[in-house]
């Protein structure tokens, strides 16, 4: 939703007048930059950049104040411990405990804290009730596994050289080279350096010190260290709000370099290219660092490092044949600078290859320095290792990956019924309809407006007749109104976020005066969970699910449209320490609430979130927020979605049609054609936009949009299989070019085309007005076939022009894949459950292909006990076979019984060989059959540049059993 809505009748009138005036002017960029800090307006960001500039300007003469005390080093059970000493002057040193953990997965965790704060040996200003430690609980929310320490890691210390080396990883092929003074760490794979920590000397942990009200003449420490006025150490003002900073300066910073790597990806969320730009200026580059500070940014701009709604501090670096990565585990405000240059000679950087060094500088306002280093070497191995740490993508219910219809707002329950009826009347498939905040009784969550939604249960029962769902919005701000039971309970039980004085924090959001639930509090999670029970949230049924919006949190009258940093959460942690985690804690509570709304009724939850952090992928889906109905925003959606997938949260999408503004019919149509390749597919629109349900577009647009949605439904088996793979190994659901072709340097920066899972489907949606063709880049020398007419495209390392009139989606199939789909059109995905399958076998140049299909009930967790079908399809030696990839469990037999009649009704072999020309049948061999049976074969030869293909109809094979079809 947008960042502001009317709170009174006066505001309604004002908004109406503003809307009329806005129609008379050309729309432009509406983001209010003055509401959000630049680096120069953020004290610690400005200090961190100044510190880096000072070190850089001194060059080799710079003397780093950080050294690892050799005598403190201990290495036990895959973990190195020691103490880093920061020298302030000849008489003062700060002790910083260091822990380096070498994990069984090959990942390394480097953790640095501050001894004085650990011991609580500091004084807080302003009689603050905040905790004295650096925030040390982010791992509790983010990490779920993968922390088993390596049993084979071995240490080798060279006391004279001041270096400690640890070999680890697969076959001992990884090595961490730790220099003691100055402290730095180089990570090597097979003798070559891939990641460097503090190679540039930017390590800086602002230690605790008491505020000196006056300095002796010439004794301003801050000016000596940073050439920055000391005032921002102790308090900081922005936009009329003052941050009290009771703990004083406590930022952490570190440079992380990738020698030989010219591309880095990840660190969403930003409306920018997938391959991240430099941030220190230059042609086409940024001058601001990438910011990670979850914020409600109204009408965000493109090609910008400006912060948005979510943040995942996970970055991948890629070069030909190698991928590495880092996770910066810090939930405070964070900035990342990126600079690319030629590598310098360093005796530790053995075997550095390549022409470009990518150097990054990370700095956060507080918390520990907690960095995970991944040495790959493949994108897939990085995704898996990251997923083992933070959790894999939730396997959603089947309806969640189908089409969602939403706007702000469907205004009555009759409106919902009418939209539902119209979709059926025009034979357009959809699965979910959404309600924005206007369904509530005066913006009070967990209520329905009795005047406009008098019969919510009847409304949902009508949806259920077509196996459709309802999603309602529930935000974390609770209306502060007398006799509203939800807010009364939250106050009485002390479950709300508090201000710096320890009183319940009051701010403004949609309801006006509001309080915010504190989901860092376990008691608040329990209370929140109970609010969703059917007897509490009256009017909801089993087919209702939840949308968590505004959970950055968005506070209309707060600094940077969010909560003051010196607010207090459970455990007396300041909001500054946990800000980027805030949205994740809410969806965590909502996910738990939906697990069992009624005793014994356990189904997979569906939760959509706007704000997120590393680990949020375990609980639901995200979308890119309040985009605009423009061609540029359509184009920007793909690098945003792709970067989210790279960063471990692939269940992502953008508002189809654009949230703000009225798209032209061409733009709306192209956006639907593009949106069917978002993992999360939802249309959404602002309350002031014209209604734009697909059936209102008129012909030919309605028909073209309908065909696009039918394509999504046709390919749901392939999409669901891709979601399953993501849920077990962290693979992105839609994959960028470099992920599929990691050695093809021409494709590394391509972010306007994508592959769907492991299917070989290559899509490049049209994102340019008036276009009737597009250029698709093909990296390999395999044949690619047009999905619809089998036109052949081949030629490695080249772009190929594909016709794309308005009614055409550019979609190719890479040779060597078998794609499962369903060809019968239904009103919703649930009604397709028992429909037969079609297999598209796309032969490669060797005449081979393979693919997989994963099926379960699409609703419960029974798959965890074996209630699923997982098949491996293989075409080789002129035969197509189906093998079992599943593991039997207690519910396998029962599930297979329910699927016993589900069959394959058609097989299409694309690129069928010439020798099949005169064949009229194939031999079908099923498991347990004494002999085979014949099925008819139709062969179609090449026509012009269109490939040959063959069709087998009704082969009478079952989806859940082994079989073989012989084409020889």
UniProtKB/TrEMBL annotation:
One of its GO terms (biological process) is N-glycan processing. Pathway: Glycan metabolism; N-glycan metabolism. Its EC number is 3.2.1.20. GO terms for cellular component: glucosidase II complex. Its main location: endoplasmic reticulum. Residues 730-819 form the Glycosyl hydrolase family 31 C-terminal domain. The keyword Membrane applies. It is found in: Endoplasmic reticulum. Residues 211-250 are annotated as: Disordered. Residues 838-877 form the DUF5110 domain. Keywords: Endoplasmic reticulum, Glycoprotein, Glycosidase, Hydrolase, Membrane, Signal, Transmembrane, Transmembrane helix. The chain crosses the membrane at residues 12-31. Residues 97-337 form the Glycoside hydrolase family 31 N-terminal domain. It catalyses: Hydrolysis of terminal, non-reducing (1->4)-linked alpha-D-glucose residues with release of alpha-D-glucose. It comes from the Eukaryota. CDD domains: GH31_GANC_GANAB_alpha, GH31_N. One of its GO terms (molecular function) is alpha-1,4-glucosidase activity. Residues 394-722 form the Glycoside hydrolase family 31 TIM barrel domain. InterPro entries: DUF5110, Gal_mutarotase_sf_dom, GH, Glyco_hydro_31_AS, Glyco_hydro_31_C, Glyco_hydro_31_N_dom, Glyco_hydro_31_TIM, Glyco_hydro_b. Pfam families: DUF5110, Gal_mutarotas_2, Glyco_hydro_31_2nd, Glyco_hydro_31_3rd. Belongs to the glycosyl hydrolase 31 family. This is alpha-glucosidase. It comes from Polytolypa hystricis (strain UAMH7299).
């Amino acid at each position: 939703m947008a960042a502001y809505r009317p709170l009174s009748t006066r505001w309604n009138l004002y908004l109406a007048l503003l809307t009329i005036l806005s129609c008379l002017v050309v729309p432009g960029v509406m983001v209010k930059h003055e509401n959000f800090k630049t680096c120069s307006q953020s004290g610690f960001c400005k200090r961190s950049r100044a510190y880096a500039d000072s070190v850089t300007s001194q060059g080799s003469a710079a003397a780093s104040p950080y050294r690892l005390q050799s005598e403190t080093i201990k290495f036990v059970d895959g973990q190195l411990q020691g103490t880093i000493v920061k020298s302030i002057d000849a008489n003062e040193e700060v002790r910083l405990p260091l822990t380096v953990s070498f994990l069984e997965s090959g990942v390394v965790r480097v953790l640095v804290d501050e001894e004085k704060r650990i011991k609580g040996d500091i004084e807080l200003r302003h009689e603050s009730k905040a905790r004295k430690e650096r925030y040390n609980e982010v791992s509790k929310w983010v990490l779920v596994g993968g922390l088993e320490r390596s049993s084979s890691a071995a240490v080798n210390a060279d006391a004279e050289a001041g270096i400690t080396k640890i070999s680890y990883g697969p076959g001992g092929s990884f090595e961490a080279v730790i220099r003691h003074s100055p402290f730095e760490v180089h990570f090597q794979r097979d003798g070559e350096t891939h990641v460097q920590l503090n190679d540039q000397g930017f390590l800086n942990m602002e230690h605790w010190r008491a505020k000196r009200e006056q300095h002796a003449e010439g004794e301003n420490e801050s000016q000596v260290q940073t050439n920055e006025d000391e005032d921002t150490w102790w308090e900081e003002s922005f936009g009329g709000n003052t941050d009290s900073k009771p703990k004083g300066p406590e930022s952490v910073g570190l440079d992380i370099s990738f020698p030989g790597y010219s591309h880095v990806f990840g660190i969403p969320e930003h409306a920018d290219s997938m391959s991240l730009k430099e941030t220190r200026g230059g042609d086409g580059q940024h001058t601001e660092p990438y910011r990670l500070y979850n914020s409600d940014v109204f009408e965000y701009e493109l090609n910008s490092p400006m912060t948005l709604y979510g943040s995942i501090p996970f970055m991948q670096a890629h070069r030909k044949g190698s991928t590495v990565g880092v996770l910066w585990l810090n939930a405070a405000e964070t900035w990342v600078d990126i600079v690319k240059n030629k590598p310098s000679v360093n005796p530790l950087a053995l075997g550095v290859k390549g022409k470009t060094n990518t150097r990054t500088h990370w700095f956060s306002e507080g918390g520990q320095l907690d960095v995970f280093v991944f040495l790959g070497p493949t994108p897939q191995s990085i995704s898996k290792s990251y997923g083992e740490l933070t959790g894999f993508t939730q396997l959603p219910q089947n309806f969640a990956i189908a089409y969602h219809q939403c706007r702000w707002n469907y205004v009555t329950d009759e409106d919902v019924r009418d939209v539902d009826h119209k979709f059926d009347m025009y034979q357009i498939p959809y699965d979910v309809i959404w309600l924005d905040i206007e369904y509530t009784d005066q913006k009070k969550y967990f209520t329905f407006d009795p005047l406009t939604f008098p019969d919510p249960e009847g409304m949902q029962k009508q949806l259920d007749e077509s196996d459709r769902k309802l999603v309602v919005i529930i935000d974390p701000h609770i209306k502060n109104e007398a006799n509203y039971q939800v807010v009364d309970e939250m106050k009485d039980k002390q479950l709300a976020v508090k201000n710096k004085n320890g009183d319940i924090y009051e701010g403004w959001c949609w309801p006006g005066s509001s309080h915010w639930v504190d989901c860092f509090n376990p008691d608040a999670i329990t209370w929140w969970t109970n609010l969703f029970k059917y007897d509490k949230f009256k009017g909801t049924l089993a087919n209702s699910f939840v949308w968590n919006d505004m959970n950055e949190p968005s506070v209309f009258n707060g600094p940077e449209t969010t909560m003051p940093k010196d607010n207090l959460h459970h455990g007396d942690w300041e909001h500054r320490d946990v800000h980027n985690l805030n949205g994740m804690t809410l969806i965590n509570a909502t996910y738990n609430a939906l697990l069992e709304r009624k005793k014994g009724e356990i189904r997979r939850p569906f939760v959509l979130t706007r704000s997120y952090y590393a680990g949020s992928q375990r609980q639901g889906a995200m979308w890119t927020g309040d985009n605009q109905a423009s061609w540029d925003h359509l184009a920007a959606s793909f690098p945003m979605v792709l970067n989210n997938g790279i960063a471990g949260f692939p269940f992502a999408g953008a508002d189809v049609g654009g949230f703000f503004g009225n798209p032209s019919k061409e733009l709306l149509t192209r956006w639907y054609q593009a949106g069917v390749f978002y993992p999360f597919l939802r249309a959404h629109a602002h309350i002031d936009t014209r209604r734009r349900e697909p059936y209102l577009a008129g012909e030919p647009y309605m028909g073209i949009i309908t065909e696009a949605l039918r394509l999504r439904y046709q390919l749901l088996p392939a999409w669901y299989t891709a979601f399953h793979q993501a849920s077990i190994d962290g693979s992105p659901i839609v994959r960028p070019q470099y992920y599929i072709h990691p050695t093809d340097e021409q494709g590394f920066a391509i972010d306007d085309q994508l592959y769907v899972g492991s299917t070989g489907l290559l899509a490049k949606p049209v994102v340019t007005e008036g276009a009737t063709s597009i250029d698709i880049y093909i990296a390999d020398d395999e044949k690619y076939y047009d999905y619809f007419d089998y036109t052949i495209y081949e030629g490695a390392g080249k772009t190929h022009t594909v016709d794309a009139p308005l009614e055409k989606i550019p979609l190719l199939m890479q040779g060597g894949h078998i794609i499962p789909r369903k060809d019968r059109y239904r009103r919703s995905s649930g009604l397709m459950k028992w429909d037969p399958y079609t297999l598209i076998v796309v032969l490669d140049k060797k005449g081979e292909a393979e693919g997989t299909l994963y099926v379960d009930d699409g609703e419960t967790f029974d798959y965890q006990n074996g209630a699923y079908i997982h098949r491996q399809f293989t075409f080789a030696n002129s035969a197509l076979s189906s093998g079992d990839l599943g593991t039997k469990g207690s519910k396998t037999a029962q599930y297979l019984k329910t699927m016993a009649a589900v069959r394959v009704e058609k097989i299409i072999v694309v690129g069928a060989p010439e020798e099949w020309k005169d064949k009229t049948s194939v031999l079908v061999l099923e498991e347990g059959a004494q002999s085979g049976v014949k099925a008819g074969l139709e062969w179609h030869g090449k026509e012009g540049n269109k490939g040959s293909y063959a069709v087998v109809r009704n082969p009478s094979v079952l989806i859940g059993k082994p079989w073989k079809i012989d084409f020889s």
